[in-house]
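for ur thesis appendix - Fe2OG dioxygenase domain-containing protein. copy paste whatever u need, i formatted it the way the template wanted (i think)
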Amino acid sequence: MAVAPSRVDGLNLTPLSKDDQNYHRPTDLKAFDDTKAGVKGLVDAGITEIPRIFYRPPENYDSHNISAETQVQIPVIDLDQINKSSLKRKYTIDRVREASEKLGFFQLINHGIPENVLEEMKDAVRRFHEQETESKKQYYTRDLTKPLIYNSNFDLYSAAITNWRDSFGYISAPSPHSPQDLPEICRDVLVDYSKRVMEIGNLLFELLSEALDLNPNYLKDIDCNEGLALVCHYYPPCPQPNLAIGTSEHTDNDFITVLLQDHIGGLQIRYENNWVDVPPVAGALVVNIGDLMQLITNDKFKSVKHRVLANKEDARVSVAGVFSTLHFQTSKLYRPIKELISEEKPAIYRETTIRDFNIQFRSVGLGTSTLQHFKLRQADA
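the 3d part is after this line
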């Protein structure tokens, strides 16, 4: 009979009681990070109980069930004929506006990316994360200047909760590295898919501009589409999903996110203090409003809290197209759009660079509100 390991390369895997005084979280976080094997490495080691660093606080053990009282569905918006029919475009803009103001989330179908490309992108994420640990260790880093940034929990040392997921990221704009610097196992599809997501982003920024009653090119003209990163998440099966979380409750620190999720499910948004599933729709892309969009629209469009549940049955993969220049140094300042403020609706947020916004986000990690940090004092009155 196999015996579950008690240690993996210095990481204590023995579950500890809440009052165990020997538990030292920083030490275990460092030991976990030093393995460079991520959460997948723990699963490969055959653990049957998760390490203490992945425990959610008791107050987060709310039910995974959706409230029967919450009768809301994530809109599925069809982009077919969007540029050929003015009536279809107006109808689509109205739906985008309603979803962005109320839910902050919607799904797109007939967006132009062939389904075989979507499947290949998901397969590439699986291939990278499921290859031998020694093969992917060379890419394990927390250096944001690297061509490919693979690690587990970008906020490992700052966040209150360690998520049950591994990730790798590729920045395709504004200053991409040479494709030859990317792993061959996912190189071609990363480059191709990022170009396709940029095209969808450009269309979305037009629709969002028109939904704000602005010129269609307004959001592109202020460079909301200047930066794009692909963040590819892998959620291994979790032996104790009731104790862990795939991704902590958070909002995104970008303008918009264009997400490709697989069939496993687990993504939820918080709506009227209840959790609502964002169900997988074959061939669809999930779009959500980010904090920077809420800032420049002066709270007209909502950046909504969301999370991903851990599950025991199968690995989950997703690919987030993050529209932001993130850590790149630019002097461009973003503030609430002047057309959206008035004496009755004054500016709620102070101006910021995207880099400063991102630094604030990364300094505290998932689960905290970056927007709150940039609120003007009178907005709190």
